[in-house]
């Protein structure tokens, strides 16, 4: 695990397994990331909570296992780290195992996590390089579990947007007004979303670049009871807002690079 530190009580912790951010404490010492106390850290199962990197497949949208192999692979720390900046770059490259998978492409994926000097912002930059001559496509998301009281969360940045309702057989729908969380299972892929999203209940500003879609998820009672690695009541303690490139797979020409960014900031309004 890499720990980044900056002003005040700020820190961020990232596991090499999955390049998985598991905490971000702001300068005042508030952890904005939810982690399940029943998460497994066995190097096999994806860690429940934090910010799983879903790549090269989001969800069941393709031939790979749910959310692809990136979150259950061990990434390596990139060589040229600047020890004086609270940041770390982790790298995942194709391997015999991935080349034998149903997504056999040559790639190099990097995740750079940067803690701002004042500790009140954390950014994640995901860079995917096509390391072969032929093109490939992928879907991805930063599956962020934000610590908050889900029953108090109202999201106002999705009005009028189209979404796929995965709590209702994936039916295409349109969002009317605010999303009120904590009343039922919410599992929606919002399409062509705004790049600034406010999680007011948690005092968090979420901004994204080049992630056209965003998933909003809270499993509520029944789905949470079916999760072995989450306490039954913990649906009350988080909302997932997951910037992603999901509905339209990214088509990447040989030798080219795709980049998506997520910046989380304490909302100082
Ligand atoms: O958050 C969107 C989603 O695809 C949900 O459908 C739910 O399955 C969630 O991801 C968690 O997936 P996981 O494989 O981590 O249990």
Number of strands: 20
Main sheet makeup: 8 strands, antiparallel
Mean pLDDT: 97
Enumerate how many helices there are, as a single number. Answer: 2
Amino- and carboxy-terminal Cα gap: 33 Å
State the secondary-structure class. Answer: mainly beta
Any idea what the shape is?
globular
| Order of helix and strand elements from N to C terminus | EEEEEEHEEEEEEEEEEEEHEE
Query: Level of helix content?
Result: under 10%
Radius of gyration: 18 Å
Bound chemical compounds: 6-O-phosphono-beta-D-tagatofuranose
The residue ranges in which pLDDT falls below 50 over 5 or more consecutive positions are none
Fraction of residues in β-strands: 35-45%
Notable characteristics:
42% strand; 4% helix; 269 residues; mainly beta; 8-stranded antiparallel sheet; binds 6-O-phosphono-beta-D-tagatofuranose
Notes on the protein architecture:
The structure is a single chain. The chain is mainly beta and 269 residues long. Helices cover 4% and strands 42% of the residues. It is built from two helices and 20 strands. The strands form four sheets. Strands 4, 9, 10, 12, 13, 15, 18 and 19 form an eight-stranded antiparallel beta sheet that branches. Strand 16 and strand 17 (204-209) form a beta hairpin. The longest helix is centred in the C-terminal third of the chain and has 6 residues, at 220-225. The relative contact order is 0.18. Bound molecules: 6-O-phosphono-beta-D-tagatofuranose. The site of 6-O-phosphono-beta-D-tagatofuranose has 11 residues, from strand 18 and strand 19.
